[in-house]
Amino acid sequence: MSYENDFPRVGFIGLGAMGVPMARRVAEAGYPLMVFDADSARTAQVAASLSAEAAQNAGELGKTCQIVVTMLPTTDVVSDVLFGDNGLAAALAPGSIVVDMTSGSPSKTQEIAKKLEQSSIALCDAPVSGGVPRAKTGELAIMLGGDAATIERIRPLVSCMGTSLTVVGGVGSAHAMKALNNLVSAGGFLIGMEALLIGSRFGLSPETMVDVLNASTGMNNSTQKKFKQFVLSRKFDAGFGLDLMVKDLGIALEVASQTDTTTPFSSLCLELWSAAKKTLGPGQDHTSVARFQELIAGSELGQEPR
User: Fold this and answer.
1) Cβ contacts of residue 274 below 8 Å, gap of 6+?
2) Which of 188, 115, 124, 182 is nearest to 151 (CA)?
3) Which of 119, 155, 195, 252 is most buried, by the most CB atoms less than 10 A from its CB?
4) Cα(115)–Cα(171) distance, integer angstroms
5) What is the pLDDT of residue 306?
6) Residue 78 belongs to what H/E stretch?
7) What is the band of 212 on the pLDDT scale with cuts at 50, 70, 90?
8) For 22-29, what is the mean pLDDT?
9) Domain boundaries along the sequence of the chain
10) Which CATH number fits domain 4-170: 3.80.10.10, 3.40.47.10, 3.30.450.20, 3.40.50.720?
11) Distance between CA atoms of 129 and 107, rounded to whole angstroms?
């Protein structure tokens, strides 16, 4: 399949908090763009703001796009979009590529790729890390799983959305890596927050503790980019849902089970995040897990313990 002026027509499915700024980066790079979301009003609004075309369904989008990006909540939703009513897969021409940027299940992604391959459609999993702020600036870290030829064909497109592109293996490998990355991130948040609670009850300033951690060996992503910004500020609005974190941790433990890996700490990590989700209720930002930790500790950061 050849592309006129090196700009294939791109479809973008999933216009949530991450999808919109990512689609904007694609549009600003000059790619002809068609967008679709399950919320038709949102589809129309985003299409207008990006000077893109709005699709009525995934099938309509697939009829005219050579590369389609999916940025959806789960792999099951991706499967529904591909193979459900007015599905994408039946509309795509042979030689098309699906770039699944969802944080998905590696094994299910591999099954989808095999099914698409029967129609000569390639799939590359390309989950991202960096959150909404880096989605807006086009500085996401993007993990790539797929065959080498497919990855090279989509590299110019994904480069519009990210500055760190890492090929990690075949189809499904990037989704595995993303889940494992979030496992490490989630564990770092929990242990860092526990340290702040201990120090706060001892009489240390949480702000000072974060500064010391960031100048020392205890530094991690949460100490650098979450504790002051979203926890100590009490904003709890980093832009990544608590439910999504729990989903990704579940995927990481799924991979552990499939590989027969014993994971005592990872299992406890998932248990704590799941308990926070159940206790705090729906619609919470993932940084609100700090409120759950404060609850079980019996005190808030910087306040006297009850």
Assistant:
1) 246, 249
2) 124
3) 252
4) 13
5) 56
6) helix 75-83
7) very high
8) 97
9) 4-170, 176-297
10) 3.40.50.720
11) 20
Evaluate if residue 3 carries a pLDDT over 60.
no
pLDDT in tens, 245-266: 999 999 999 999 999 999 999 9
Residues 39-48: contacts with CB under 8 Å, at least 24 apart = 39/15, 42/15, 43/15, 46/15, 46/20
- Run of H or E including 33: strand 33-36
- Active-site positions read 178
Residue 194: partners with Cβ closer than 8 Å, 6 or more residues away? 293, 297
pTM beyond 0.85: the answer is yes
Runs of H (alpha helix) within 139-263: 148-159, 173-202, 206-214, 221-225, 242-258
Number of Cα atoms under 13 Å in the Cβ half of residue 304? 1
Supply the mean pLDDT for the chain. 95
**Rounded to a whole number, what is the distance in angstroms from the first to the last CA of the chain?**
67
Calpha distance 142→180 (Å, rounded): 14
pLDDT surpassing 80 at residue 6: no
Q: Would you call 19 helix, strand, or coil by DSSP?
A: helix
The share of the chain scoring above pLDDT 90, in percent, equals 94
One-letter amino acid for residue 153 of the chain: R
Nearest to 52 by CA among 20, 77, 80, 78: 20
What confidence tens digit (pLDDT) does each residue in 93-142 have? 999 999 999 999 999 999 999 999 999 999 999 999 998 999 999 999 99
Q: Do domains 4-170 and 176-297 have the same CATH topology?
A: no
